[in-house]
Design goal:
This protein is of the alpha+beta class. It contains 14 helices and 17 strands.
Length: 503
């Protein structure tokens, strides 16, 4: 039985969110009405298991959002702009202050989503160590404002705060998630404390059980629950779709895509780019002329055809076709060094095997660099055993896949973290005054179009330094039973199953 308040909570979003519900969902993938029949459970295979007990502050944050467990104050629409989620509206009061108006919603423990609870959740996120990726380099404070408002103030002007708050690591959880007052702070638990259409009820090693949350603010989900399995092996995920063991399997390797019936494959462009990062600080690629030689040696079209089998686009820049505005605003790199002629310079090229296509990409890149005159040693490891050495500059070149808009939705964010002197994920170890000035200018720029223009100017400066060679802009390939409707094909890779997903 549903209260009148629940009915109001359901009807209001339908009026306020006509565009949001359809951003990534097919027209027949909308949530059911209150009192609808109970739908079948969904069987889902995910590529990466939880690494931090489902803490929303780390890599597990996207697992939670993909399974429809957590939500933030905002979401991202198909164009990368901030859209309503737990906040139905917002306004900027001055350079550093924003006010967000909350919708009526409840946490999965039955308590109301109140301004105090939201402010407390954001405050906990600011104290997490390491800081959530969406808050890297940002200082903010949140306080309740009246019966339905939250006022957020940043230490420095932050024109993209609404986009930042859409980051999965800034999900809003109930006070219960953070433990009792006075206890030693730790990672919050999303089990029974989130706001999404599905609630985690059990985690058991390589699997998790989720049930439908019947008081979800946007309406009763079609599926009665989700049985999730974490299957690292891509071939096993593809086989599970083929045999009907699962209804949905994410990240189908391109080598397996051709083995599946075409009717069970769904693909869409993503904001993920596979790139060759060149160590600009030590080793042979400290020389700009040798970096230019490496860039000239790469044929990305051969990679797209041979390795990705057409499920990717040739590398055009840090931002690819799924960033819909990028191509029309792209700036031609200037100031590039003249390529030198490599004469047997030895280099070590590294990549990881969590994404099965990357070792294949690395082998093709190895051959292309060797043909250009480099001597290339290839090293492949599991990502967790590789990252620290890559960041420390122990390799001359590194191939990785990076979603440029995953953390904040702001194109400037990835440029600052990956290519500036103080960047925390600077695999190219680039420290170039011209690049830092261009990124700093983009950080200061307000207005959506103007900020995009500044981001593309900064991209041109980075490409001009030949610190990175874009190889391919990947597509997401998902295996989906022909009985399933409403799977979320999200270019930001934050969503997979939602209230409208059903079989």
């Amino acid at each position: 039985m549903f209260s009148s308040r629940s009915a109001v909570r359901f009807l209001v979003p339908l009026v306020l969110l006509p565009g949001l519900s359809g951003c990534f969902v097919s027209p027949d993938g909308q949530s059911s009405s209150r009192g609808g029949t109970s739908g079948a459970r969904l069987r889902v295979a995910l590529a990466f298991p939880p690494a931090e007990n489902f803490s929303p502050y780390g890599a597990d944050a996207t697992l939670l959002s993909r399974l429809g467990v957590t939500e933030g104050l905002t979401a991202l629409d198909a164009n990368g702009a901030a859209a309503p989620a737990l906040a139905r509206t917002w306004s900027r009061e001055d350079d550093r202050t924003w006010r967000f108006t909350l919708r009526e919603a409840t946490f999965q423990d039955g308590t109301d989503v109140t301004p105090a609870a939201v402010a407390a959740a954001l405050t906990h996120a600011t104290k997490a160590r390491p800081a959530p990726t969406a808050l890297a380099g940002v200082t903010l404070s949140a306080e309740p404002d009246g019966d339905s408002g939250v006022r957020i103030t940043t230490a420095e002007p932050d024109p993209v705060l609404p986009m930042r708050l859409a980051g999965p690591s800034l999900a809003i959880l109930s006070p219960k998630a953070y433990g009792k007052e006075g206890e030693r702070p730790g990672a919050p638990t999303p089990v029974g404390t989130a706001t999404g259409p599905f609630e985690i009820t059990e985690v058991n090693g390589g699997s998790a059980t989720l049930d439908r949350y019947d008081d979800y603010w946007s309406g009763l989900a079609h599926a009665s629950g989700i049985d999730a399995r974490f299957v690292k092996d891509g071939t096993a995920r593809a086989n599970a779709v083929r045999t009907g063991e699962v209804d949905i399997a994410e990240a189908i390797p391109v080598a397996q895509a051709t083995t599946l019936d075409r009717s069970t494959l769904k693909e869409a462009g993503t904001t993920r780019t596979t790139s060759l990062q060149l160590n600009t600080r030590t080793g042979p690629f400290k020389d700009p002329a040798l970096r230019a030689a490496a860039r000239r040696a790469i044929d990305s079209s051969a990679l797209v055809k041979g390795v990705f089998e057409g499920y990717a686009d040739p590398g055009a820049g840090i931002f690819g076709p799924a960033v819909t505005w990028a191509e029309s605003k792209r700036v031609k790199p200037a100031g590039r060094a003249k390529p030198a002629r490599p004469v047997g310079e030895p280099i070590t090229l590294a990549t990881y095997d969590n994404r099965p296509e990357l070792p294949e990409v690395a082998q093709v890149v190895q051959q292309q660099l060797q043909k250009a005159g480099f001597m290339v040693k290839l090293e492949v490891r599991e990502y967790s055993r590789l990252e620290s050495d890559a960041l420390a500059g122990k390799f001359d070149a590194f191939i990785g896949a990076r979603n440029s808009l995953l953390d904040t939705g702001d194109p400037v964010g990835v440029l600052g973290s990956d290519y500036t002197c103080d960047g925390g994920y600077n695999l190219a170890r680039l420290c170039d005054k011209r690049v830092d000035r261009a990124v700093a200018e983009a950080v200061r720029t307000d207005g959506t179009g103007e900020r995009q223009d500044a981001a593309m100017a900064a991209e041109a400066a980075i490409l001009g330094a030949d610190a990175v060679v874009p190889l391919a802009h990947q597509q997401v390939v998902v295996g989906v039973s022909t009985k399933v409707r409403g799977v979320l094909l999200d270019p930001y890779e934050r969503a997979l199953v939602g209230a409208g997903t059903r079989r």
